[in-house]
Amino acid sequence: MVLSGPRPSQALSARMFAELAKETADSPGITRASFGVGEAFAHSLAAAVAQELGLSVTTDIAGNQYMIWPGRDRDAPRVFIGSHMDSVRHGGNYDGAAGVVAGLAAVADLQAEGFTPAQDIVVMAIRAEELVWFPTPYCGSRMAFGLLDPSEYDAVKRSDTGRSLAEHMREEGCDPDALKAGARPLDPATIRHFIEVHIEQGVTLDMKGIPVGVVNGIRGNLRYRHARITGKYAHAGALAREYRHDAVLAGAEFVQVLEHKWDALTAQGDDFVATVGEFWTDPDMHGMTKVPGSVNFTMDLRSLSNDVLMRVDAYLRDMAREIGERRRVVIDIGDYTNAPPAVIDPALVTSFERAARRLAIPTLTLPSGAGHDCATFSWQGVSAGMVFIRNQNGSHNPDEAMEMPDFDKAVQVLSEALRDIG
């Protein structure tokens, strides 16, 4: 039985978002620090709503919360629906939390229809996804699989307190020592699917006027944090062009080469984006009347293909040598860190697209440029899928403006797909 008229999910979602906005307000916007008061409130709210729905609630030693709706076969691999509930400082109310609320909302509607899942459905509230608090990615989901290096628990400090991850975890009743010793709360073999509903953090859906997105991959990245160009400082008026070792002009050409490579990759159908997020001269040495002798910069390269990323790396190193020799400077892009792309299960993409067609809800299939906890599950071999919700004004800012009718459409797509999954 598919419900007609108002559905339980609508009142449930409105109430949860209103309570989150009220209790974690930090003008402008909201703040839910990882392993802090705001995140703890969000988890307690989710648990209370889950218990109202008759779900059992458990918490693992990393602080991740599992809200379990029993299926017909309690021993079968389970379907997880989850996301994080922390936020950036002065962020919006929907980044992360929308995924947990969507999971509970879908359960509410399916229960009202009299649906019983074939296997357990687990709504998971994940700890500490936002990198701004602890500088290690996907902290909560990686801890769930025992993937965090033991040294990180004491070495990684929260940005606002300077205190370690382990200290903050203990305050929330978690057990970092067991995790350091090798405990692994989640076994990938027990998970049939992991589904994450999330606001789109770009503008594609909004610009195209489409309420729901179906994600077909999560871009991996190469990050260069310490790229440097070394030339020679000289008098701006006295030194002729042919004798200059100008680090800024070399850098400008190098960035232009990167953009031309981006154009070429796009023209041949390869997925790729690039950002030079920082580019600066030495404030102790630079001056308006000096030929610049050094430049530091960063690069963030992303693609659905790690092969594309590695080919771009090789190309940029060749171009660094060529430009450096011609302009009499040394361009050293340095080492990189590599987060590989995360595979999205094509079967889940098809399931979401089919569900939306049956409901006459317009969708767009697109990649996720931002990272998500879903990637951690994919890297562990779990069948993973994502649904995006149109979101105005971007993300990681207090002006996030997801519209509730769009959220409602995403919940409907999720519920319809869960009916198909069984």
From TrEMBL:
UniProt binding sites for Zn(2+) 2: D95, E130, H396
Protein name: Zn-dependent hydrolase
GO molecular function, one term: metal ion binding
Keyword vocabulary terms for this entry: Hydrolase, Metal-binding, Zinc
Record keyword Cell cycle present: no
Family the entry assigns: Belongs to the peptidase M20 family.
Cofactor binding remark: Binds 2 Zn(2+) ions per subunit.
Binding annotation for Zn(2+) 1: H84, D95, H198
Cofactor(s) needed for function: Zn(2+)
InterPro entries: Amidase_Cbmase (IPR010158), Bact_exopeptidase_dim_dom (IPR036264), Peptidase_M20 (IPR002933)
